[in-house]
Amino acid sequence: MSTPASSSPADIPIPEPGTFTPHTYEGGCHCGRVKFSVVAPPPDEIVVTGCNCSFCSARGGRMIYMKPESLTFTKGSFDDLTKYLWNSKTGWHSFCPVCGIAVGGEYQGIYSINMRCFEGAGIEVEKLKLHWIDGKNLIPRVDGA
Questions:
Q1: Domain total in the chain
Q2: Does residue 1 lie in a domain region?
Q3: Containing structural domain, residue 18
Q4: What is the 3-state secondary structure (H, E, C) of 1-59?
Q5: Among 41, 24, 10, 37, which residue's Cα sits nearest to residue 131?
Q6: Cα–Cα nearest to 70, from 19, 31, 34
Q7: Which of 44, 67, 75, 88 has the fewest CB atoms within 10 Å, measured from its CB?
Q8: DSSP string for 62-121
Q9: Residue 104 covered by a domain
Q10: 94, 104 in Cβ contact below 8 A?
Q11: What CATH code is carried by the domain that includes residue 45?
């Protein structure tokens, strides 16, 4: 199920704690260097974000965005991952330096986690509601990269 492309990356859905029935999902990178739990809406209410910018297209993630209080690392942290700053360098993406899995990132105090990193949650990522960002046309390239 897909929603129309956003007119702005600022339209990304961010579940506000206290406005949904909380479900806890557990996940991590492939090798287990980092593990985390996320408090998010139930599967039928989760909205993941996809983007067609050059970076997101290459990695194929489906991101769920959240306030920091919704994410708890149970092993390691973002500091144990490699951070990649691209374009405006105002946000970062992280990946495991051991197994290479794109885990998540941060932009202006909002975290993202790749829903493909949730293990044993019984969630079929491809069946979740999709909020599409036309990053190829909406996110201006500021550094020529």
A1: 1
A2: no
A3: 9-136
A4: CECCCCCCHHHCCCCCCCCCCCEEEEEECCCCCCEEEEEECCCCCCEEEEECCHHHHHH
A5: 10
A6: 19
A7: 44
A8: -EEEE-GGGEEEEE--GGGSEEEE-TTSSEEEEE-TTT--EEEEEETTEEEEEGGGB-SS
A9: yes
A10: yes
A11: 2.170.150.70
Q: Which residue has the tokens 């970062």?
A: 92
* Closest alpha carbon to 121 in 57, 20, 36: 36
Residue that is written with structure tokens 């046309």 in the block: 137
Residue 47 belongs to a domain: yes
Q: What is the pTM of this model?
A: 0.85
pLDDT per position in the chain (145 positions), as tens? 444 454 455 678 899 889 999 999 999 999 999 999 999 999 999 999 998 888 888 888 899 999 999 999 999 999 999 999 877 777 899 999 999 999 999 988 999 999 999 977 778 899 999 999 888 887 665 655 5
DSSP symbol at 139: S
143 occurs within a structural domain? no
